[in-house]
Specification:
heterodimer, A: 201 residues, alpha/beta, 5-stranded parallel sheet, disordered N terminus, B: 231 residues, 9-stranded mixed sheet, 3-stranded antiparallel sheet, 25% strand
Amino acid sequence: MYIEAEYPEQMADSDPVLLIVEDEPDVAETYYLWLESSYEVRTAQNGDEGIEQLDETIDVVLLDRMMPGLSGDEVLAEIRTQELDCRVAMVTAVEPDFDILEMGFDAYLSKPVKSDELQNTVSNLLERSQYDALLQEYYALVEKRATLEATKNQAELDGHEEYAELRDRIERLRGELSETLGGIQDDDDFIATIRDIGDDS
Amino acid sequence: MTTISLRRFVISETIVNMYDLSGGLGENSAVQPGTNILISGSDETSRNCILETLADGMQNGEGAVVVTTDSSATAILEALEQRGAFDSQLLTIVDCSGGETRDWKAADTDTATDDRSTADTTGTDERTTLADGVFVYRAAAPTELTAIGVGVVECFDQLSQRGVDRCRVGLLSLSTMLEQRNESEIFKFSHVVSSRLDSAGFLGLFAINDDEADTHSYQIIREAFDETVEL
């Protein structure tokens, strides 16, 4: 695939990594069974353990909000402090009455969580990460093209192989962006994607 | 007056769903739903052009979202009033000017706000209704990209609750935002907002000061839009 060719460092064949932070062993085990075929799944039994396990390899954290000891909110705060590039879904017993995006969560799931809900949420969060990466690459290429256009005249550009290739890649990236997240059809994806812009810089 | 070479511009009477731009952007011009246009000109010219185009839409029953970074919501209201009537049920505003009106109509906007508004403050963002129904979402500053996004979504929700399914969005202006956020952030923001408007089938009009026109940032940011109009 095109993206993999552009990002050899992300080409590792390994599955995306999930961390489940959940104090009820049965619940954690259920999530694990649902997700293990598609992802590398790690588990933590409480907030402290969750924080110990945080590292750069984790793509998505499923975080129980109400746990003895450190709460989900505190674990989230630590994730944001460490500026880890992962998505966090809050798992909660009651539907939140506040804006979870403003709180810094990327999504929420209310218990009892169903298998398809969990799968959809995880894949949506991974797709947001992909969008973010594509958008960064898109910007970088557009920036490069603008620099070339500013420093070379039309005749030079016409004969410039890299320039032609750059234009093709920009065109293809624009297409890929319009297909990722359905071209930002959903308001939550819209707001989450905008929030990522600030986080990147 | 305009330099128009727009791929998506066609003669308006032929297609029903097009957004008619005759008033603000030239005779017989119209664009497909989902088109996003960068409007480059002096602050005043591009603001007038965009407000004119939004006002025309409201006359046809289309909703309007004004995202204002440099003038207060009240100043926007007054500017629209001067153009004739606006429909308070169709107009919504995301005000991230921080309450300041920097470069125009500096007088009497603050007092007017007090007379006409009823505020509902939730958390850090403020939702207000002005002039019998104009929904206003206040974000703290033009740097608050996420809050602007939330404001735009809430405006869409308000319009949708009022049965409005076509909408024109005007952002005044990207230049103010570029003073405080870098070009990469503004490019990405523009792309994401354009994409959202595209999938919703709305019209987007984004002002940028033509002082920027020869800059590297401008050459990059214009890529986020379908068309560029130089006034």
